[in-house]
Write the structure tokens for this entry.
Amino acid sequence: MRTLIFNIKEIVGTYSPDIHLVKGKEMKKLPSVKNAWMLLEGDSIVEIGTGTPPEHADERVDAKQGIVFPTWVDSHTHMVFAGNREGEFVDRINGMSYAEIAQRGGGILNSAEKLRRASENELIEAALHRIQGVIKTGTGVIEIKSGYGLTVDAEMKMLRVANKLKSLQPLPIKTTLLGAHALPLEFKDDKAGYLKLVCEKMIPQAASEGLAEYIDIFCEDGYFDVDDTNRVLDAGVKHGLKPKTHVNQFKSIGGVQASVDHHAISVDHLEELEDEDIDALLGSSTIPVALPLCSLFLSIPYTPARRLIQAGLPIAIASDYNPGSSPSGNMNLAVALACIKMKLNPEEAINAATINGAACLEWSHLYGALSKGRKASFFIANNIPSYSFLPYSFGENHINAVYIHGKKVV
Ligand code: NIG
Ligand code: FE
């Protein structure tokens, strides 16, 4: 089945198939084709051209002078969770801090209590609803982490749910084990015991059952330190899981270096960043990831993206969709905040949310750009004069149609 999308004002992110990541100065360039058409065969792109479109196609779609973008690649989410934490939101409005809420047993532990009680079906229903929401705002690929179970059974339940979601909705998904997200109450005074459980039970089981491809840890004061990080990443790597870590959200304590030492695919958060962290990233293949919705929601600093780009590094942005620090998966807003608050140019922000996001999931040969051979996952934004209008008109949604794997889903 051949589908022709014609009458396109501009197709952006038309990277040639050999480009899989953009960094430093290159991030300011966004390749595009104007006055264009795009021919799809099944789930893939077969040709992009300009001027008169080919005659023969089984289906012809008039883009009505819309701008075509690769769908957003959201490389960091906690989209499987039970219940919400709007009570803590109100507590924070009234002056409590995220750390104080965690100290009184709220935060991640609050979500863990709810998740342990939820059935797989309840978790699936809730996650499907969230996924339907993010598709409408242009997301076409997601990563999902565990981390609200904090027992072997509950962590595996989360990962099973994340894996079942693959066949229940259109988005491709990659999964990450985040057993070391917080110390559960039962191990409050026995961190070594919990780490043993993570390393000797959760990691081997997640790996042998093929439930996760990546290993994550929350390396932060009050959660897990650098030694813990080394230990968990060692165990993960030994079982074939690749590191993607939560580091430098509130403090820079050496998590970046530990992650780089373990050849992490990405280091995520980085709201706090020392020069040594940048030095550690230079010369590595680890991709820094900013989570601007989390910065907005918790009123914490935005990741200093300009410093990273000026150092010649790449940057990706993701939503961090979760009940505590970012109860939104709206990547349009994340892109807008990257421009408004992190001072990225629209080209940089779009690259960060597409090709570089895909690189954080080792999928940029398939997603995050539009070229011959890549998957036909794109959205059409109508009635916008230029691609910069998308982040400029923050909070609005100009997306009229979303295609995943060549099929129209919105
Ligand atoms: O990425 N920082 C650690 N984990 C999540 C938030 C967890 C929560 O508050 O539920 C994050 O921000
Ligand atoms: Fe997170």
The chain has a mean pLDDT of 98.
